[in-house]
Input
Amino acid sequence: MTLRKHRWAFLALPNILLLMLFFIWPLLYILLYSIYTYDPFQIFIRKFTWENYVKVLTNDLYVNAIFNTFQLAIIVTFFVIIMAYPVAYYLARTKSKTEDTIISFMILAPVLISVVTTSFSWVILLSPFGTLYRILNALNLIDGPLRIMFTKTGIIIGLTYGQIAYMVMTLRSALSNIDWSLIKAAKVLGASPARAFYEITLPLSLPGVFFGAIVTFSLSLSSFVTPYLLGSRLVKVMSIFIYDNIVSVYNWPLGSATATVLFIITTILLGLITYIFEKRLFGWLKY
Output
């Protein structure tokens, strides 16, 4: 038994080394830079300070960016769940391979294409005098320019489009594992289709909803290209502040502190949500 454990540990060693090299080591560097002092001539000097964290947590611009970042992630996650569930349910129940292939390809298209390309596509569609404006104007539904670009609404549309594939695939897997004979039994016993769904299908699919929501929420929090192109700098989010501080201003300590704050808040929040859901919501599924 001991030898078998050592073999499995040996097989996991390359993954552990890659994780340490490309995730843990850069993360430690970010944490280290975040407590250095900014110097406009040397970028930073190795002098310990909490000033960077104080600015991120007290400055109105950064506090507003933190609020916007989490607000957008929550809204996007909500809309993704609402839009992805019917599609995933249909894919889990359909018996047509052709329909399955076509719909799956359409859903996965945003993932297969570069996020830069899809975001620029939304810029063309949502710009003040873009494609959507021309359609609405031709139908006499709008008079002035379309005011979606450079707003939270535009960012939500772009992020929802980019994240929906992850939710559909996660939900489809959860729904496909449901024993559909339970639904038939419920209907035989007099339950309506709506009641069978809310009391059997929905509860059994909640693990898929939860894990899909975690992925969507995390990706929305860290997204940069879509908020940058669809919101520019008019909608303040953490990823844009990190980019500006590190790439534009060369204030690596402040940029690192901003990234660290986002990482810590996200880790704590997701940890608490996971604990609550596993203990309170999914505990009954074990029995």
